[in-house]
Design goal:
With about 350 residues, this protein is α+β, with helices and mostly antiparallel strands. The chain has two domains: about 1-100 and about 145-255, Glutamine Phosphoribosylpyrophosphate, subunit 1, domain 1; about 270-345, Arc Repressor Mutant, subunit A, CATH 1.10.10. It is about 30% helix and about 30% strand. The strands form four sheets. A seven-stranded antiparallel beta sheet has the order 3-2-4-1-12-11-13, covered by helices on one side. Strands 5-6-9-10-14-15 form a six-stranded antiparallel beta sheet, covered by helices on one side. A three-stranded antiparallel beta sheet has the order 16-18-17. Helix 4 packs across helix 5 and helix 6 crosses helix 7. The longest helix is centred in the first third of the chain and has 16 residues, at about 15-30. The radius of gyration is 19 Å and the shape is globular.
Length: about 350
């Protein structure tokens, strides 16, 4: 699990993105963090092992230029900063971040074949290493790469294959996630498309908001939103979303029978019973525990949208004064580092 943030507007993107990440990183991040902005046809990026504060202290992240950008913070994982998001394609045109898990797609997707095809087309992989890790993708030479490195290269190749299409970034991203599916939200920028952010959402959360000045924000939870959001939209399951500076938000359904189905969602009452019941019993609960508490409400062995039902509920309970969110620090992935973890305290009656 990870958290993401995006901004497309009139102000400098980097400070807004980093503040949004700071607000939500305790939900599912803080162990590796990164940011990328797009300015005058160039991607500017920075990433570290550590949380937002580490990123600001160790890199020029806060000063990255541009009024469009995306940012990411993740739970523990190997590979050091190389495996932190964002991932930039070989030709420095596409930037990609994702909140993903293999889930029930494990063993169903030919990632090795996709990687071989991209190598033959001149794409390389910055994350290639000699030791397997997590859901890594094998290369023909015996090395392994991060699956999001694979998707960033595939999206870039897909854009090149659609040179005259105005929606080519959206189409390339949707096709990539169709061929390389997961329980995922993928978000990308492209240097040929400086006025848009594209996202593909299968089951991981995506909240969109519009500020009073016409700027757009996106995040894993509305709890990350800055003040002044006047319009809010839950991106639907299995959809591609294009957020354009002038043309607004466009949503395209992912109608592909090859994608695993999502079980019928539980009722709001069932979700509230599981979450509030646990809070009433325990009084202080790690938000990850609340997420796992609702998983049995979906059919076993399939896809679920636990974040999309728990995060909004917690936000609503917080607004009503029934819960308080507190942050504790836990050990990070390197000596001397810590990461934030959000604890939900029950204050209701």
């Amino acid at each position: 699990m990870c958290v993401i943030a995006g901004y497309l507007g009139k102000e400098a993107a980097a400070p807004i993105l980093l503040e949004m990440l700071r607000r939500e990183e305790g939900l599912a991040g803080g162990f590796s963090t990164g940011i990328v902005t797009l300015h005058e046809g160039v991607l500017h990026h920075a990433k570290v092992v550590g949380d937002v504060e580490t990123l600001i202290a160790a890199t020029p992240a806060l000063q990255l230029p541009g009024t469009v950008g995306i940012a990411h913070s993740r739970t523990p994982g190997g590979g050091g900063a190389t495996y932190a998001h964002p991932f930039i394609d070989t030709f420095q045109r596409t930037a990609y971040i994702a909140n993903s898990g293999v889930g029930p797609y494990k063993g169903r997707v030919d990632t090795a074949g996709a990687a071989k095809d991209l190598l033959e087309r001149g794409y390389g992989f910055s994350t290639a290493c000699g030791e397997p890790f997590g859901a890594c993708v094998p290369l023909p030479d015996g090395r392994y790469i991060h699956p999001c490195d694979l998707r960033s290269q595939a999206i870039s190749a897909g854009v090149d294959a659609l040179p005259d299409e105005p929606l080519r970034l959206l189409q390339a991203a949707m096709e990539t996630h169709r061929r390389l599916p997961a329980s995922i939200l993928g978000v990308c920028l492209h240097t040929d498309h400086p006025d848009e952010i594209v996202a593909v959402r299968h089951t991981k959360p995506l909240e969109l908001g519009r500020l009073g000045d016409g700027s757009y924000v996106l995040a894993s939870s509305t709890m990350a939103f800055p003040q002044g959001v006047q319009w809010h939209f839950h991106a639907p399951s299995f959809s591609g979303v294009r957020i354009h500076r002038e043309q607004g938000v466009q949503v395209v359904p992912c109608n592909d029978p090859a994608l695993l189905p999502l079980g019928l969602p539980p009722s709001a009452a069932a979700v509230a019973e599981a979450v509030v019941g646990l809070l009433e019993r325990e009084r202080q609960v790690w938000i990850h525990t609340l997420l796992e508490a609702v998983v049995p409400l979906w059919p076993a062995g399939g896809l679920n949208e636990k974040e999309m039902v728990v995060f909004p509920l917690i936000a609503a309970l917080r607004a009503e004064g029934k819960v308080e969110l507190c942050t504790e620090r836990v050990p990070g992935v390197e000596p001397g580092l810590t990461a934030p973890r959000t604890i939900v305290h029950w204050r209701g009656r």
